[in-house]
Amino acid sequence: MIPRLAAVRHIDVPTVRDPRGCLSVLEGGRQLPFQVARVFYMHGMTADRGGHAHPDTEQCVIAVAGSLRLDLTDGLASVSHVLDDPTRGLYVPPMVFIDIRDLSPDAVCLVLASTIYEPARVIRTLAAYLEAAAAP
Prior knowledge:
The chain is mainly β. 7% of the residues lie in helices and 42% in strands.
């Protein structure tokens, strides 16, 4: 197995602040190590999310409001990251299993992804993920 968690890293979101407020910008190929093909956000969440992996999708996850915890595993190790700052995202490479937990009531989770969503390509259980991650 390849230690994929080594590629997980924080991405600082360039932010301009002035008396009117803040403007934050991310650009594919600049701050993001991929071109963005899909943008989605989750809000009004009342239960944990995630519980899946994307074999070929790079992602940047940002808590644009509130806070949440990302629990990540690559089958060799696990790590948790609390996201609670809209000027800091987390880069998640392909083939990392993601669970989203400890959502604050006001949490809004923004995800920038490198691929278009294909439901058949998602690995939806940890058992299936561990089997796929162990494959040569």
